[in-house]
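Input record, target 12 of the design panel.
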């Protein structure tokens, strides 16, 4: 009889089998952060008696609907709740074998998302690579990143980074329990995309996460993405508390306001409110990439990359980008990401595709400043410490929406997970014939890296060299995947005024 009941430190869990892979869903890795525990760091879960059913995903954490993917995937089936700190596990067998573990942190701008999305289903990874896959939920938006210490005292000094502390708690749970599911607690690779990759960048720098993982993969994000200063975080918190009718120090109102009301108050302030980790001097002592330069993650191999046209995705949520002329676009970009040097302006003009609309030419600035720059700084910092670094760029262009998205943000996700068949995926990535080949290349490269720290193997058409300070190589995933030496070199030099 196939074994679906496992013994954890907290009690027994009964999972199920799907497509030849064992799955355990909705496993609590921390106590529910509700009532008196709202806005406090996570605590280990309570033990239970008997066998707990683990065949349904737990609730997702409090969040608004996803403005992009809800239309592609349909609304999530799990209702949002403050009680959302659950994880899910896919494994070939709970048999005592020590398999590599892939620990996934989802994206969503630290505002929305969950580990139960069908895009992150771990079945293909477990089946193709003989690995264990873990996906998690963690607190987001006002519940995970509200900087309360200045207004509510020492007990809430870590509130601005609760989402990160949740991730550490989930990692610690996996470290302590994953052997029961057929995983190797000493061979854990953390990986994530967008805000998930930003989380990975932070975890690489965090002493509390040291020793909880062996390798890291960062997709379209770094420790600088969505990072906030204490001043910025405090100003945002003051606006949200005022809108919610919570006076500084009014702990009773802070803990009793209904979660939906608090979230509505925050959302009513508009898209200018940004959530993310805070360099608070407590959880984050310094900027994560600066910490890497000082050796915070020395010896940890990383795989890191971007999609070619990251920022094009955001024209779906803000079509005004596509309607502006050159001057208006550049004025807006200067307001969003700071002044653009003349050398960079010349670079984007000289390298523009003749047939591309104006907005596509200039949104490359946003792609560089928001995503590429942090990737390069992270890669340089790790390479300088002697760690193995592998860089990639994803060039497959989706034909949907008239082709305007090109190789946009999040497009690589179903390729990495080999989930091109999941609901809604074709609506986003299209049906170009090269899809399957690229998915095989990426999927098995990620598996190889999780197993050995090296993405190479027969699945790639040519060897993927490491990124070093001497040879800044990147593997380009496309219809004809290949290696390029320093593909971001000219662009980086233009930004540096050279």
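The sequence produced for target 12 reads:
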């Amino acid at each position: 009889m196939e074994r679906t009941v496992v013994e954890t430190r907290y009690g027994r869990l009964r999972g199920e089998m799907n497509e030849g892979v064992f799955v355990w869903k909705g496993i609590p890795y921390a106590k529910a952060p509700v009532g008196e525990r709202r806005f406090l760091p996570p605590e280990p879960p309570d033990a239970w008696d008997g066998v707990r059913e683990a065949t349904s995903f737990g609730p997702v954490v409090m969040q608004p609907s996803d403005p992009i993917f809800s239309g592609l995937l349909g609304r999530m089936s799990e209702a949002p709740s403050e009680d959302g700190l659950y994880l899910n596990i896919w494994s070939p067998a709970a048999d005592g074998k020590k398999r590599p573990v892939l620990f996934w942190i989802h994206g969503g701008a630290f505002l929305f998302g969950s580990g139960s999305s069908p895009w992150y289903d771990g079945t293909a990874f477990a089946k193709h690579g003989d690995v264990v896959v873990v996906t998690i939920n963690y607190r987001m938006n006002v519940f995970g990143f509200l900087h309360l210490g200045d207004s509510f005292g020492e007990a809430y000094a870590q509130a601005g980074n609760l989402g990160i502390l949740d991730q550490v708690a989930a990692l610690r749970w996996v470290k302590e329990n994953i052997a029961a599911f057929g995983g190797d607690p000493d061979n854990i690779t953390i990986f994530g995309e967008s805000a998930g990759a930003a989380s990975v960048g932070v975890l690489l720098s965090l002493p509390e996460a040291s020793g909880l993982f062996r390798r890291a993969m960062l997709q379209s994000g770094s420790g600088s993405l969505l990072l906030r200063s204490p001043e910025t975080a405090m100003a945002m918190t003051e606006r949200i508390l005022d809108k919610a009718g919570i006076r500084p120090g009014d702990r009773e109102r802070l803990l009793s306001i209904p979660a939906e009301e608090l979230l509505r108050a925050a959302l009513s302030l508009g898209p200018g409110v940004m959530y993310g980790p805070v360099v608070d001097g407590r959880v984050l002592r310094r900027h994560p990439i600066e910490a890497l330069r000082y050796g915070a993650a020395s010896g940890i191999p990383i795989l890191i990359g971007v999609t070619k046209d990251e920022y094009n995705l955001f024209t779906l949520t803000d079509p005004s980008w596509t309607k502006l002329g050159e001057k208006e676009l550049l004025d807006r970009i200067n307001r969003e990401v700071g002044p653009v040097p003349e050398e960079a302006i010349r670079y984007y003009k000289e390298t523009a595709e003749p047939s591309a609309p104006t907005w596509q030419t200039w949104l490359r600035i946003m792609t560089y400043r928001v995503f590429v720059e942090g990737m390069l700084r992270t890669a340089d910092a790790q390479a300088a410490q002697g760690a193995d670094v592998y860089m990639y760029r994803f060039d497959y262009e989706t034909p949907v929406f008239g082709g305007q998205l090109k190789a946009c943000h999040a497009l690589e996700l179903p390729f990495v997970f080999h989930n091109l068949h999941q609901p809604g995926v074709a609506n986003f990535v299209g049906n170009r014939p090269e899809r399957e080949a690229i998915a095989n290349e990426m999927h098995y490269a990620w598996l190889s890296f999780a197993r050995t720290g090296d993405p190479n193997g027969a699945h790639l058409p040519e060897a993927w060299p490491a990124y070093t300070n001497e040879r800044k190589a990147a593997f380009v995933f496309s219809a004809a995947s290949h290696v390029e030496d320093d593909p971001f070199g000219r662009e980086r030099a233009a930004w540096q005024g050279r």
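The chain has 17 helices and 16 strands.
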